[in-house]
Amino acid sequence: MKFPRFSIRLFILCGSLGVLLGVKETTVLAQAQDCNDIINGAVGGCLQEIPAPFPNSLRKASAEFETTLSLNRKVYNYAIAHLGQQIADGECAFLIHNALVAAGARTSESFGSTGVNADYVWGKLIATITPQNIDIQGVEVGDIIQFRDVSTYEKITKPDGSWKTRKVQYTHHTSIIGAINGNHLVLIHQNFGNDPAIKKTVQKSDLNLDSLRSGTLWIYRPTQ
């Protein structure tokens, strides 16, 4: 039996004047499984968040790291507490700005990265990710991702044999890392997706770093 194909193209531009640039969508998957969480792009199943919001690598006995743990946890908790809500005008950067303010951390303005199309700096640079360099060993839940001209492409095969292709472009976008599972990240962000009912609200989505085709992601750690 041949199953219908499903193709999604998302184009994300997110700054103070960010807009959804375009969406192309075709036939819905046949025999798709219900999923209470987001889809794991590698295997097509439901992506389960890590049991605790912070992996063991964050649990280090030093005053500096205790401060980091506290800030990351506060940023994460702020994002989770506001799921389904719109922060300010719904632009992606406002969620991160408000989460950092609530955590008592520095915002992008204190690093001098301002302007509608700036590559915002959100703290201490932890990793720079490109299709040729995917290394997130030092990355933690509560870190912040700044996207520039990022595109992803993956073919997702479900257990029932049906499949879809997924293409996403993050032209200028910002997200909080909500969970880490290998090279799969759960993103918490707003101004994302093609559903106008929830696009401007805080939501979760999946990013498979192995599907990167172009662009740069800078990952920052909140600092005081």
Detailed description of the structure:
The protein has 224 residues and is of the alpha+beta class. It has one domain. It contains two helices and eight strands. It has helices spanning 63-81, 92-103, and strands spanning 5-13, 20-25, 124-129, 144-157, 163-181, 184-189, 203-208, 212-221. Strands 1, 2, 3, 4, 5, 6, 7 and 8 form an eight-stranded mixed beta sheet that branches. A hairpin with a 2-residue loop joins strand 5 (163-181) and strand 6. Helix 1 crosses helix 2. The radius of gyration is 17 Å and the shape is globular. Mean pLDDT is 78; it is low at 1-8 and 15-61.
**Mean pLDDT score, rounded?**
78
Query: What is the number of E strands?
Result: 8
Main beta sheet: 8 strands, mixed
- Structural class assignment: alpha+beta
- Rg over C-alpha atoms, rounded to the nearest angstrom: 17 Å
Question: How much beta, percentage-wise?
Answer: 25-35%
Distance between the termini: 57 Å
Indicate the overall shape.
Answer: globular
Number of helices: 2
What is the helix/strand order? EEHHEEEEEE
In short:
This protein is of the alpha+beta class.
Provide tags for this entry.
single chain; 224 residues; 14% helix; disordered N terminus
Which SSEs are present, and which pair or pack?
Blueprint: E1 5-13, E2 20-25, H1 63-81, H2 92-103, E3 124-129, E4 144-157, E5 163-181, E6 184-189, E7 203-208, E8 212-221
Parallel strand pairs: 1-5
Antiparallel strand pairs: 1-2, 3-8, 4-5, 4-8, 5-6, 6-7
